[in-house]
Amino acid sequence: MADSAVAETQQEEAEFIYPIAVEEAGPGTKKVTVEIPAERIESSIAKQFKELRTQAQLPGFRPGKVPAKLIEKRFTKDVREQVTRTLLQESYQQAVEKNSLQVLGEPAFENEKDLALPESGPMKYTFSVEVQPEFTVPDLGSIEIKKPKIEIKDEHVDQALQNLREQQGTLLPVEDRGAQEGDVITADVHVKLGEEVILHQHDMQLKVKPGSVMAIKLDDLPKQLDGAKVDETRTITVNAGEKHPTEKIRGQEVAIEFKIKDLRQLELAEIDAQFLEQLGFENQQQLLDALREEMVNRIQSDVQNNMRDQVAKALLAAVTLELPAKLSDRQEARIVQRRAVDLLQRGVPEDQIVANLENLRGGAKEEAVRELKLNFILGKIAEDQGVEVNEGELNANIAGIAAQRNMRPEKLKQQMASEGSLQTLFVRLRELKAIDAIIEKAKIEEVEPEKKD
Predict the structure, then answer these.
(1) CB atoms < 10 A from the CB of 129, how many?
(2) Prediction pTM value
(3) Which of 22, 264, 310, 352 has fewest C-beta within 10 Å?
(4) Would you state the pLDDT for residue 2?
């Protein structure tokens, strides 16, 4: 009989309904006002004291025999604080669940420091919370995708073989001339804004060819360094670019100084029996076949990524979605972390990952908002389509990252779990599977690849 009474009491408490009002407070933001009635406060305090009377132990009294007045005098402050925490948590949880609020981040309470039970009467409190925005997913079958049609030709394979010969080649000292295109120099490099050194790297090794130095595009590097000799300093004046990761020089004219310390020319590796044996091939044709297969796999991956990008752009264009006015630090951190996972999967060194993260923190807010919008859209699509990532798929990706970082997969998994990036990887894989599911339903047109200038 006693157990039945307890069960009924617990059921009544679980079903207690708090007066709750929810208002719009801007894009993706709700203002919630909760009232804790006086009778709820009084009954909770009474219950807490009742429990204390059966448990309290004070000198001179047996357990359960401490006078009620003494208990109230001794424990009133603690009881009221405990009841405050309990009722706040209980009513907040009900406000979220009863109103189906998909909360992002932590709530912001009005007058949080003053949240305490009143001496009499009801308690009211208000909080604002960012919630997942509401939007409508477009008809996925209506998305149109252009699939680049790429053919692997013999000249492509020949170029891959040439690249391999360069990678396996030997750097020989140059003493009788200055630098030429294709040479490899070692130099101390300083990037200056006026007289101030903004970036520098000593003993940088780079090939004299069009490319980037310190994230600054230098298409005419061979011309600028032509004829440069050891101990000579060459200075190139160039615009750092509007997207440079270092904000101070973004869009600014800078001077890049190269102090040449070493100059070498590349002697290509010979395709002989020893070369082929070291690579594990019996003859040159086997090597060419392997290079062709590798190119096919890489191109298939590039084409898939290209179509994924098209899907992402189509979804962003088709979905009207308003984010909260201010992205919370937690949301921004999650975006940064997701970028780090992407870079890890590509085998990017950790120092370059840090540079990319700083680029995000350094003002790429629009890109962060774009990624967050896409995250919401793909999350909803994955849920609607029943897209999930199993443990095997997750472990396979971790193993790939671990191989690139020369780590044991289980150790990397533990590290990612402790850093919070394991969940980020899971979400990212789920999003990619959702995009691939969309590609399967989309209207695909094969097209010739765009020619680059």
Answers:
(1) 24
(2) 0.64
(3) 352
(4) 47
Token readout for 350 is 């950790």
**What share of the chain has pLDDT > 90, as a percent?**
52
Tell me, what amino acid is at 338? R
- Spatial CB neighbours of 143, under 8 Å, sequence gap ≥ 6: 311, 314, 315, 318, 438, 441, 442, 443
Instruction: Please state, in angstroms and rounded to a whole number, the distance separating the CA atoms of residues 316 and 366.
Output: 13
Both structure tokens of 231: 């101990």
**Type of residue at 97:** E
Q: Which pair of structure tokens corresponds to residue 290?
A: 């392997």
d(CA 367, CA 243): 12
**Maximum C-alpha span of the chain:** 104
Q: What is the pLDDT of residue 245?
A: 77
The CA distance from 448 to 146, in Å, is 9
How many alpha carbons fall within 13 Å on the CB side of residue 132? 15
- Check: CB of residue 377 under 8 Å from CB of residue 316: yes
Residue 189 has pLDDT above 90, yes or no: yes
| DSSP conformation class of 19 | -
d(CA 403, CA 344): 11
In contact, 393 and 429? CB cutoff 8 Å: yes
Distance of alpha carbon 137 from alpha carbon 135, whole angstroms: 7
Task: Count the alpha carbons within 13 Å of 444 in the hemisphere toward its beta carbon.
Answer: 16
What is the rounded end-to-end Cα distance, in angstroms, of the chain? 86
Residues 6+ apart with CB under 8 A from 103: 96, 129, 130, 131
Distance CA 448, CA 236 (A): 38
Cα dihedral value 422, 425, 431, 435, nearest 10: -150
Q: Please, are residues 389 and 145 in contact by the beta-carbon 8 Å criterion?
A: no
Helix or strand (DSSP H, E) at 245: none
Residue 122 and residue 36 in contact, taking contact as beta carbons nearer than 8 Å: yes
Rounded Cα gap, residues 205 and 261, in angstroms: 10
pLDDT score for 6: 46
Which residue segments constitute the domains of the chain, with CATH numbers given? 16-131 (3.30.70.1050), 170-267 (3.10.50.40), 275-447 (1.10.3120)
Residues 6+ apart with CB under 8 A from 98: 17, 20
Find the mean pLDDT for residues 283-290.
94
pLDDT(5) > 50: no
Half-sphere exposure of 63 (CA within 13 A, CB side): 3
CA separation for the pair 222, 216 (Å, rounded): 15
